[in-house]
Amino acid sequence: MIEGACLCGAVRFEIDRAAGPFELCHCKRCRKSSGSAYLAGLWVNVADFRFVSGRDRISTFELPVRERPPGYRRSFCTSCGCLVPDPEPCGTRIEVPAGLFEGDPGMRPERHLFVDERSPWTIIADGLPQLDRRAVREMRERAAPGQGSPK
User: Could you say which architecture CATH assigns to the domain 2-142?
Assistant: First the structure.
């Protein structure tokens, strides 16, 4: 079991195992949401995820649909403002901001997403695959339902 929590510790969760993928998203919305060059997100099967405490301290912000449903959702702790997993995930998987894990999730990042939207000061030199919007769309069209978010 791997535990995780928000910055203040009010929202706590645990997972049995990570399912993946582990992605680094450079889209404009994720950059603004994370306040960084990208959002590191790790996907977990809903059946393997549990809130331990603080579910009542979570609020969710949703932007309109850009290309196809669902819209862009970001959940956060109302005490510290930290991003947290969505308490109402859409589909069979839930995206967990990877920085919330207190232990090793047992996976490493697999790819960069939406590199055509990355910030001009970001240099990607880790050798991971770099997918632009077209490549992400094609990848998701081939994927099974419930395996990701359209951003």
Answer: Beta Complex (2.170)
